[in-house]
Amino acid sequence: MKHATLSPLPYKAMTVAGVMSGTSADGMDVALVRITPGVEAPRLRLLAHFSTPYPAAIRKEVLSAMNACAASVADLSRLHWRLGQLYAKAILEALQKYPTKLALIGCHGQTIYHQATPQRYCGASVACTWQLGEAAVIAAATGVPVVSDFRPADLTLGGQGAPLVPLLDWVYFRHVQRNRVLQNLGGIGNLTVIPAGASASQIFAFDTGPANMVIDAIAEICFQKRYDRNGAIAARGRILDPVLQEFLALPYFSAPPPKSAGREQFGREFSQRFLARCKKISHRPEDAIATATAFTARTLGIAWKQFVQPTLPATPTDFIVAGGGANNAILMQAIAAELASFHVHISTSDGFGLPAAAKEAVAFALLAYQTWHQRPGNLPAATGASRLAILGKISHA
Ligand SMILES: Nc1ncnc2c1ncn2[C@@H]1O[C@H](COP(=O)(O)OP(=O)(O)O)[C@@H](O)[C@H]1O
Ligand SMILES: [Mg+2]
């Protein structure tokens, strides 16, 4: 490890594109970010943000690659290249709408498999993670160097390889007098805890469990909808308490952090089980959506009571939500109800100059900037890694 600090000396100002595709497999977010050296850490300014949905055929391929027990190697390889093309196209379109001289790209890629807990495989213990989207394709098409494959370096140090957004959370949201808790509501929910005045090494983070993943799956199966827009279906439904109780008892929610989650635990099979239990009690599919929505909120409440509240200094706390789930009014109301007795101030990241949909893409712009300057991007207190690591691989244009 060369530099275990965030000190600004060798940094220079750059405009960086961050590109994110999350576990929802809904599409690509491109953030154009101006990053300049700062006294304690880099400073960031979001120049523009664009969301591009995956074409339906690509989304289908991505989801089937994620869910498959056996996938064709040829198809995986083609998808890897095809996603590289799509990321390049999304970046070039962003630059057309917001012309700027881009120095670097950080592309997370599309996770198709993430297994942070080592398992026996071919005579050895193996943990692994795999993101698709060939960076060489992106570098060639854009003429800009690309940092990709951010997660493996952390994983090889015993970390979960996730979450990686906490560095951005600390750089952008830290406050001397206020505790800041950042909650992302993507397919999976991730939470970062930044006590007032904390250094980067004093913050922690973990995945709370599914955020939109189960809601989306049930919306697709029962309503042929990609998601429950603004929580309209949940608003008509009734929460099925026995189902909540059963699924909240799963060991994931009481397990102490660090921990990370994905489609491997909370994907199609889990959602089908959840839905089947709902159907046993109620024949109204809106009740299943209402229950899945309540489930997400309750998992945040459990995480808060067990792992967050006890660690916070007695000073005001901001709970700042980002990710697509911030648009789900019923989910946001249910989260507010969970946290009501804790007197936290709830808002979305929009109020801090980072649109809820852009935050993760901005994080990968920052992480690419770190890597380019041979600086670490993971926070061991968040991932569980044994030390800081320079993340990713660089593909030159
Ligand atoms: N208007 C909306 N109402 C309800 N849910 C929404 C809305 N917009 C987005 N979402 C939810 O957010 C998800 C996408 O969020 P995102 O932050 O991109 O997640 P990921 O990082 O997993 O891709 C969608 O799948 C959907 O569940
Ligand atoms: Mg997304």
Which CATH architecture of the largest domain is right?
2-Layer Sandwich
Mean pLDDT: 94
Query: What is the approximate shape?
Result: globular
Q: Taking Cα atoms only, what radius of gyration do you get, to the nearest Å?
A: 20 Å
Strand content: 15-25%
Which secondary-structure class do the elements indicate? alpha/beta
The overall strand count is 13
CATH class bucket of the largest domain: Alpha Beta
CATH topology of the largest domain: Nucleotidyltransferase, domain 5
Distance between the termini: 26 Å
Which ions, cofactors or small ligands are bound in this entry? adenosine-5'-diphosphate, magnesium ion
Described by strand count, sense and barrel closure, the largest sheet is:
6 strands, mixed
| Residue runs with pLDDT of under 50 for 5 or more positions | none
Written as H for each helix and E for each strand, in order along the chain, the element string is EEEHHEEEHEHHEEEHHHHHHHEHEHHE
How many structural domains does the protein architecture include?
A: 2
Oligomer: single chain
**What proportion of the residues is helical, as a percent range?**
25-40%
Q: What name goes with the CATH superfamily of the largest domain? A: ATPase, nucleotide binding domain
What is the number of helical segments per DSSP (H or I, 4+ residues)?
15
Strand order across the biggest sheet? 3-2-1-4-7-13
